[in-house]
Design a protein that fits this description.
Length: about 180
């Protein structure tokens, strides 16, 4: 019986699986985003997130532990220098899996796995929207009526004539050159 054995072997022997996950983790750290199947992405997420957590503490021991998993000096350096700085305040959930549909050849479910803090489209949307207080109920109807009845304030733009300014500057410049 295989009760409570949830580990996905991905149809590979253990050495092949470890090498594949190591290579995929290195690629994810170096490129910040890779395309793969959903099953491999889920296995990679459970492989790489503890390594990213270890990178928060930059000690020789942690670097050696991470290197034993990745076997790639450039990836370890990138992880401890740049990635750990961006994720310093995040308590977990460093990766995001975005499903992209089926692959044409064998109809395998494909996805993009990426580091969360490096996707600028999601980061800029969160920064642009202020965090609103959420309530369980619909809120006050008076507040909704106020927002609908408020007229937008008209913006007044004052433009100076550009031609006159340029002529004045040109005249000043010619006088300075003549002196």
């Amino acid at each position: 019986m295989r009760h409570r054995k949830k580990f996905n072997h991905l149809g590979r022997k253990s050495a092949h699986r470890k090498a594949m996950l190591s290579n995929m983790a290195s690629s994810l750290i170096l490129h910040k985003r890779i395309t793969t199947t959903v099953a491999k992405a889920k296995a990679l997420r459970s492989y790489v997130e503890p390594l990213i957590t270890k990178s928060k503490e930059d000690t020789t021991h942690q670097r050696r532990v991470v290197f034993s998993y990745l076997q790639n000096k450039q990836a370890v350096t990138e992880l401890f220098r740049e990635v750990s700085q961006k994720i310093a305040d995040r308590p977990g959930g460093y990766t995001r899996i975005l499903k992209t549909g089926a692959r044409l050849g064998d109809s395998a479910e494909m996805c993009i796995i990426e580091l969360v803090d490096y996707n600028t489209t999601y980061v800029s949307e969160k920064a642009a929207k202020p965090a609103a207080k959420r309530t369980r109920r619909g809120g006050s109807k008076a507040k909704k009526a106020e927002t609908k009845t408020k007229a937008p304030e008209a913006e007044v733009k004052v433009e100076e004539p550009k031609a006159e300014n340029q002529e004045n500057q040109n005249a000043d410049n010619t006088e300075e050159k003549a002196e």
